[in-house]
Automatic annotation (TrEMBL):
Keywords annotated in UniProt: Oxidoreductase
GO cellular component, one term: cytoplasm
Gene Ontology molecular functions: oxidoreductase activity
TM region(s), chain numbering: none
Protein name per Swiss-Prot or TrEMBL: Delta(1)-pyrroline-2-carboxylate reductase 1
EC number(s) stated in the UniProt entry for this protein: 1.5.1.49
Pfam families for this protein: OCD_Mu_crystall (PF02423)
Matching PANTHER family: KETIMINE REDUCTASE MU-CRYSTALLIN (PTHR13812)
Enzyme class label: oxidoreductase
Organism lineage string: Bacteria, Thermotogati, Deinococcota, Deinococci, Thermales
Length: 294
């Protein structure tokens, strides 16, 4: 079994094709031909944590293995193993952090393609880490975004992401303030680990917001008033009910929350909340195998 590096894994997962692969998995999920149980979380002696996230179709089975050890460098390690469903043969190993970063941005890209009222941008990215970079690349390649503003508590990180945007041929600028650019941008990505809202409520009526940072009930990037004002979509209803702090803290009416299979809304703002799912890792593995000709 070959185990691929981060760079080799990324080369097999171009964003537009990965968004299409995720859409196919959504159709297969509706047809009942892909499967993914709840993730297993196991505390380890000494304070570490092991997470296992399997998924399968008739051809391949994947297992994402993640270990979290605070105080170690790196503190999080992850791999995705690809197996033959029928024989159990180990086929391929992928860098788990790269798979997670790219499939998360690709899910947001798919959501913007299906749901954004004005997908051309300009774009605002709040948070200049791995997910900020991934969403910049995904929205450029999949939507043709030409202008981006970057906001981050760390000015050096914001300037680095702006420089990357410019190297890709985009017009990039640090946001002087969020309020100063909200009237201009129609695409917004929040990708922070903040426990309190980072985005003001005054977004445009045609805004599309991809909120990908908050992943625990006590975390929220989006203010409750904006959540209640928006048309809300999620990548996983079961996951959002358990983990989407933005929605939980706003007391969202879950009867109004839709998955990505929902119809394009007639008005906005549109809020897409992503919490992740093993099926998106399966989609990435399918694409990687296809790119390798396997």
């Amino acid at each position: 079994m070959d185990f691929l590096s981060a760079a080799q894994t990324a080369a097999l997962l171009p964003y537009p094709e990965l968004a299409e692969a995720i859409e196919r998995v959504l159709r297969d999920k509706a047809a009942g031909t892909v499967w993914a149980p709840e993730r297993l979380v196991m505390p380890l002696p000494g304070g570490g944590t092991l997470l296992l996230m399997p998924a399968a179709d008739a051809e391949i089975t994947i297992v994402k293995q993640v270990t979290v050890h605070p105080g170690q460098q790196p503190s999080v390690r992850a791999e995705v193993y690809v197996l033959d469903t029928r024989t159990g043969e180990r086929r391929l190993g992928l860098d788990g952090a790269t798979v997670t970063a790219r499939r998360t941005a690709a899910v947001s890209l798919l959501a913007a393609q299906k749901l954004a009222p004005n997908p051309e941008g300009p774009m605002l990215i709040v948070g200049a880490g791995t997910q900020g970079r991934g969403h910049l690349e995904a929205f450029r390649s999949g939507l043709g975004v030409k202008k981006v503003y970057v906001a981050s508590r760390n000015l050096e990180h914001a300037q680095a992401l702006v420089a990357q945007a410019r190297s890709l041929g985009l017009e990039g600028e640090p946001a002087p303030s969020l309020e100063a650019v909200l009237g201009e941008v129609s695409l917004i990505v929040t990708a922070t680990t903040s426990r309190t809202p980072v985005l003001p409520e005054g977004v445009r009526e045609d805004a599309f917001i991809a909120a990908v940072g908050a992943f625990q009930p006590e975390m929220a990037e989006i203010p409750a008033g904006l959540v209640r004002r928006s048309r809300v979509f999620v990548d996983s209803l079961e996951g959002a009910r358990a983990e989407a702090g933005d929605l939980i803290q706003a007391g969202v009416d879950w009867g109004r929350v839709r998955g990505l299979e929902g119809p394009r809304p007639q008005d906005g703002p549109v809020l897409f909340k992503s919490v992740g799912h093993a099926l998106w890792d399966l989609a990435a593995a399918r694409l990687a195998m296809r790119m390798l000709g396997s």
